[in-house]
């Protein structure tokens, strides 16, 4: 905004136009626009015309309605998108988050059915996610393997690990006594809002504070922009790389718990499937470049909610489940195209061309 | 001599003063990962032969090529974008949509040649979309091709979610008809190929010519080295990028033709994860994901290694839950070995 | 020359970026067979003007005529097709390809079987030979030769397209004196063949040696076009800076040699510090308040020794004493913790963190020494940023600008601010004045003297002997990866002394 203020002497008109340009160029703007349009679409075309309705559900002690279920689903996306943002900021990528979700979910369900205390089960599954993240981190930072390949391997291996944990079964822990705390985390309500959404939001905010109130965010960005120059300033890029993959693994484990605890059942081949792609999309929609550098956790969080909303829209509009990916692709393409600088500069570019053509004619004449 | 002249990196010029002291047979460090891939592939075959006794039989070699001709084509398709530091995630989904459309049309009695043309055009169209998104709207290749992947998969599922079987008496199966080159009394000692393998071989040769014998190919390497330099050198970067994604999309369609002809059916879920198999092949073959270094022939070796991992794990009796872990570990060992070999090679 | 038709006429060129007018109605005329210099301080708009002519930037207003025909360039290819070839300041070639291929890329010789590599490399060698580079192996990877060589390879490339205009943007900033002369020989040859050369350099001597005509820019505006031989230096500098020559504060006088106190202990004392393949073991003492100059040609080991002192590379021999205490400096973090800082010669790759702000770039090293989770309090950070930006006169004075958008000289100042913020006892400056304009150069030289006066030990590494001799107390002379001599820099020492020392001493320290 400081720039706009300085522009004031050039006339308020210019300042206002400049702001509009800035707003159009802001990635958050288009995420919000997409969200609003999707909600409007659902409201108008929902066959039962109750998309925006919110009821108080006495059984759960919270609000209920389509928007609430959307928020509940968004919790897992928020988690993996947050971890993914940090990894992508270092110019890396974590393709293993979906598989890590399956592993932590499988571990939790298996431990519960084997009679372990629910809190111990939660703790152990989180630690397993952290461990897998640390392995990614070690391979990338110490061995210097390429992130894409390293996490691709973990993506393949992770699915296998989940299957090994459950011996290939889709373990169901819904009838295990004493698992209520985990169930509450995934399905419960506080202040009328879903616990998992609030918890996810809290974690996003904590990570955000950690990044921006300490030097962590700046150092992560610095390593993503120029690792050698970062090393020369005394930063240890290897430590930073290790850390972001570890965090991503841990947050993926949280997402895995959210995803499995909502039905208290793990599907070793479907839990977390394709979710690494959703997380990457959320990050890109949020305005963080896959080339690394500056990141925006708020943008990624909004991106995660857009992803959840797209999925909700597909269900609400009764779009054939087979067409889901196609609809998904269209929304993402539209958002990304609207974010392209080419579109924002279209007016200015046409004006420039016309002016130059006129001048060229004048010179030729 | 062609291969030596075509590849400046492999040539060693003896006439110059500055290099005169170095040994005459100096192997360029850029080649080391690819050579490592060849060595490890040979080791795998020898190990398989020593333990199970079938890996060097002509029958095994024949089926390795016939069953994985599609993967070789996809590996070549993936090599182009990866060389520029990009990626094409949509190739698996393009296989699916081409397969579903192709089988649907065949079942409606459309001439098989026309079907083949339609399938290739579909691949071309998805390549065109990806190229436009990348070059005109500044989308990163990962995201652009992820979008076209979802798009292709979604449309494939909208057309049909059934398993579509190619009708009898069509003129399509010729691609899969095996041609016996060496006929032995024992089937496992037959050496045979089919049109699919020949197509794959042509694709490999074409990829090689494109990359090493055309200016477009050299521009691909230049973009991988430094896109901004390539632009400032006045190379047609945008056009080349479009050509890359058009080619990878079309080759994916070709892979769909070879694959569906071979198994005689298609489903919308075919090709899930094949883009990752292709990436793994390319990487095993020594191409670096950040671009600039790598060879088509390396990717072919990579595809063969990737294809040999499956029979090896099953011959070792690995339980099914463990297969993906073992595959992952093998790729890991491979990449680490390559890195070690490269590091040692650079020191020397 | 006036009887000739100009090749290029640029009139009223205006380029706007969001919020700034980088160029405002600038004119430039190039005639065939002349060397024309674009003169101005950093940020005057020279690079922007070049990028307008080469099609990198699109112009907002104005006209470009090439051989009388109006042109609208929508990319570098358009400009090349119009006969304009460019060699940029930062070498823009592909290090993953061979030398010959870089020369010929996009113009490879083709036969019926596609590219004919044999012929392509033959042609590449022909162009390389024109540049006096016939000793290069055209098959060797570009990454195997020095930056200076790569620069010449880039010029060889420019000759491949039969250019009418050759733009050389700071081609000499990484060349040594002999290489500059070689380059000038080539430039004269090219000029005499009727090509117009547009030349940018910060070295006034070079401008007066090679150019015929000058166009002077200041703050994005056209100031004047003059003939070089009719324009005295002080007048030229005055036009560039916007002040009269008398106003320029020059620190022309040689620094008075610092008097050593009896019994004084050095801050840093290294014995036999070396790394195989980089620099042979060398001894060195640096005292508080002393400026130690490293003099030597490119590749003499001057940078390598500086990097070892900082731990940017790990030494494999020698001892390192810091204020009398034995230390092991194996990485930059340890060096900074021990109050040693190093400013790199490679500003773009190892210095600036482009997408971070000036403020973050200043604070990052101090932050790294304190630890990730102990943020510098905002008030302290503000004070540090404010203090050093003022002291070093960083322009624009906005700490929230991205550093990549600053001119080279100002980036350099920010980097020095970064190291000063860590309060080093020993500051190693590697080529701090390379590729920056006269004004900023004088400012940085003054900073070096001030820091030494405050008691800091400074290592000053530069390829310009003149400034090494003027600023240093002691001069370490380097040759072929050996330290060959240590000269007490008193009144009897001049640039000539250093040159003779390098020429007459072999690497064992004996007279040659």
From TrEMBL, chain A:
Membrane topology: Multi-pass membrane protein
Protein name: ABC transporter permease
Compartments (UniProt record): Cell membrane
Classification via PANTHER family: ABC TRANSPORTER PERMEASE PROTEIN YPHD-RELATED-RELATED (PTHR32196), GALACTOFURANOSE TRANSPORTER PERMEASE PROTEIN YTFT (PTHR32196:SF19)
Residues spanning the membrane: 28-45, 77-98, 118-140, 185-211, 240-259, 279-310, 322-340
Keywords: Cell membrane, Membrane, Transmembrane, Transmembrane helix
From TrEMBL, chain B:
Entry protein name: Sugar ABC transporter permease
Transmembrane segments: 31-52, 58-80, 87-106, 112-134, 191-211, 243-266, 278-301, 322-341
Claim: Kinase is one of the keywords in the record: no
Polar residues composition bias: residue spans: 1-13
Topology with respect to the bilayer: Multi-pass membrane protein
Region annotated Disordered, chain positions: 1-20
Protein source organism: Bifidobacterium amazonense
Subcellular location: Cell membrane
UniProt keyword annotations, A-Z: Cell membrane, Membrane, Transmembrane, Transmembrane helix
Family annotation (InterPro entries): ABC_transp_permease (IPR001851)
Principal location listed in the UniProt entry: membrane
Source taxon at top rank: Bacteria
Keyword Membrane assigned: yes
TrEMBL record, chain C:
Domain of life: Bacteria
ABC transporter domain mapped to chain residues: 8-244, 262-505
GO molecular function, one term: ATP binding
CDD domains cross-referenced by the UniProt entry: ABC_Carb_Monos_I, ABC_Carb_Monos_II
Pfam families per record: ABC_tran
InterPro entries, A to Z: AAA+_ATPase, ABC_carbohydrate_import_ATPase, ABC_transporter-like_ATP-bd, ABC_transporter-like_CS, P-loop_NTPase
PROSITE patterns named in the record: ABC_TRANSPORTER_1, ABC_TRANSPORTER_2
Keyword line: ATP-binding, Nucleotide-binding, Repeat, Transport
The protein, known as: Sugar ABC transporter ATP-binding protein
